[in-house]
Write a structure and sequence with these properties.
The complex is a heterodimer of chains A (about 290) and B (about 280). With about 290 residues, chain A is an all-alpha fold. Chain A has 16 helices and no strands. The N terminus of chain A is likely disordered. In chain B, helix 1 packs across helix 13, helix 2 packs across helix 13 and helix 3 runs antiparallel to helix 10. The chains are: A mainly alpha (about 290), B mainly alpha (about 280). Chain A: InterPro entries: MetI-like, MetI-like_sf.
Chain lengths: ~290, ~280
């Protein structure tokens, strides 16, 4: 519906200044194409909202509703009864925030040293970090599971957080930013008698706020979206993270799609809001150093 | 100088310890496991048996083939689409540029589980996609019930999720290509298409390589989508290596065999990344 509306309104609006538009960077055809892609990108989100606010059956009717309904609270209550939404949301939030905090500290410290100090083994260590970015998660999955199981740490926040704390990509990202920091400033501060820790905390870090924000978002998203590891590291449903709980809904013998869509919505909307609010940091965080 | 050295090692220590415990140890342990068979907690060394077993395992070959089909179709499709979109958006005077960019990027902020589930609902036999197709006289398509369409579903879903992400990477790189080059080309009579192939693509080569490598590693590890969207079916037609490792490890508890498959993935990532470097040329 909205697709044809968009396509139809495109030409009408720009019909008069057609020549200028064309000269300026593409004619009507370009906008129609972009509009089609926009609809394809956005429609699943819209459909998610429709599903979350309607009864399950409405999604599969011969003439499906395209309007939001009023069943959201019913769906939400059902969802809460099946997976304990507050508990799993809290799990995900706690795990992601703790992870973000500790990983940011670990990776930032390592990155700073790797960028600004000369010592034995520096290049070797950095190369190891870089190479390890190519190792698929699945190659470490089973030993990690055995380790956590032997230490009786399955179903703990520790098990969910610890394995990824040293995240080479985050180190790489922060290092790029530290490299750009003028070394003369460090030397001047040293001549003034400032200690290394103080230089790091009061001179270097304050100028790294945008980079820290981007890396923080990257780390948060990595943990928030993580699925395979929490799936094997948690076996009791009250320790599930949100993605694991959501996925478990689809494994039930009778699936209530209204509930599932509500879950998908709750998993998605907060992230979209944060994304829209912090667009610039968010994009550079998610893309890493590809975007400067 | 001495204080600087102490500072360096102290600051690096947490990262190194964590790296040793949760990356190096598991990687080595996984390699050892792949030469073992574990039976009720007792592990015995069985040489290359897990690897030779791979050769006769139809599901493994299916998973490998599926991964390659998805890789060979999905990655180029997505990168080409992303390049086209980036090229369309790379005009200073384009209206609503910010809006389009955000719209295309939006799928990339969804969690893999959430979007896989969303697509699995939309692609059901009587779901919205078949409903819309029905209105224009197509279908119903067995998106999740026939092997061909199930693979197509995974490819379409992945393309939806990742195209905007890659587009933004390309768009950022395009900002560094001076507009004068395009203007000069246009004066010399080069059309838009010619400009796309002779200016846009060559100047984006390193970034395309970067996106290609990320996508290669991503595709070889494919897990969330087949697990949540198709459950590997029908008839293992969307079984991925990642999913097969998981099944062997945590459904059949055959850690040795699962580790052997994982090491195949490690080697494949290394080989494919190497080939991509070679193909794209320049260092």
């Amino acid at each position: 519906m909205s697709m044809t509306e968009r396509a139809a309104s495109g030409p009408q609006v720009s019909v008069k200044p057609r020549r200028t538009v064309k000269k300026r960077g593409g004619g009507v055809g370009k906008y129609v194409l972009l509009a089609v892609f926009t609809v394809v990108s956005i429609f699943p989100f819209y459909w998610m909202l429709i599903g979350a606010t309607n009864h399950s059956s409405k999604m599969f009717a011969d003439t499906p509703t395209l309007l939001p309904g009023s069943e959201f609270w019913t769906n939400f209550t059902n969802l809460n009864n099946s997976i304990g939404i507050t508990r799993v949301l809290a799990n995900s939030l706690i795990v992601s925030l703790l992870y973000l905090l500790f990983a940011l500290i670990v990776c930032t410290c390592a990155a700073y040293v790797l960028a600004k100090f000369q010592f034995k083994g520096r290049n070797f260590i950095f190369t190891m970090f870089l190479l390890s970015m190519m190792i698929p998660n699945q190659a470490t999955l089973i030993p990690l599971f055995k380790m956590m199981s032997d230490l009786n740490l399955l179903n703990t926040y520790f098990a969910l957080i610890a394995p990824m704390l040293c995240y080479p990509f985050a180190i790489f990202l922060m290092r790029q930013n530290f490299l750009a920091f003028p070394t003369e400033l460090l030397e001047a501060a040293r001549l003034d008698g400032a200690g290394e820790v103080r230089i790091f905390l009061t001179i270097v870090l304050p100028s790294m706020k945008p980079a820290l924000a981007a890396t923080a978002i990257f780390l948060f998203m990595t943990q928030w979206n993580n699925f395979m590891w929490p799936l094997v590291a948690t076996t009791s449903s009250d320790m599930y993270t949100f993605p694991v709980a959501l996925s478990s809904l689809m494994g039930l013998s009778i699936i209530d799609y209204g509930q599932v869509m509500t879950g998908v919505t709750i998993a998605t909307i907060p992230i979209i809001i944060v994304f829209l609010a912090l667009q610039k940091h968010f994009i550079s965080g998610m893309l890493g150093s590809a975007v400067k | 100088m001495r204080s600087q050295r102490i500072f360096s090692y102290t600051f690096l220590a947490p990262a190194l310890l964590l790296f040793a415990a949760f990356t190096i140890y598991p990687v080595i342990s996984s390699l050892i496991l792949s030469f073992q068979k574990s039976n009720g907690g007792v592990s015995t060394f069985i040489g290359f048996a897990n690897y030779t077993r791979l050769f006769h395992d139809d599901i493994f070959w299916k998973a490998l083939t599926n991964t390659f089909i998805i890789f060979i179709i999905q990655v180029p499709l997505m990168i080409i689409l992303a390049l086209i979109l980036a090229n369309l958006l790379n005009h200073q005077l384009l209206k609503l540029k910010g809006f389009f960019r955000v719209s295309f990027f939006l799928p990339a902020v969804t969690s893999l589980v959430a979007y896989s589930i969303l697509f699995s609902i939309m692609l059901q036999e009587d779901g919205i996609i078949n409903n819309v197709l029905g209105m224009i006289g197509i279908g119903p398509v067995g998106w999740l019930s026939t092997p061909f369409w199930a693979k197509t579903s995974i490819i379409l879903a992945m393309t939806w999720r990742w195209t905007g992400y890659n587009m933004v990477i390309f768009l950022a790189a395009l900002q560094n290509v001076p507009n004068e080059i395009y203007e000069a080309a246009s004066i010399d009579g080069a059309g838009k298409v010619r400009q796309f192939f002779s200016i846009t693509i060559p100047s984006l080569k390193p970034v395309i390589l970067f996106a290609g490598i990320l996508s290669t590693i991503g595709t070889l590890q494919l897990f969330d989508e087949p697990y949540n969207l198709t459950k590997g079916g029908p008839a293992d037609s969307t079984m991925s290596l990642g999913l097969y490792i998981y099944q062997n490890g945590f459904k059949y508890f055959d850690f040795g065999y699962a580790s052997a498959i994982a090491y195949v993935v490690v080697v494949l990532v290394a080989i494919l990344t190497f080939i991509q470097f070679k193909v794209t040329g320049d260092e």
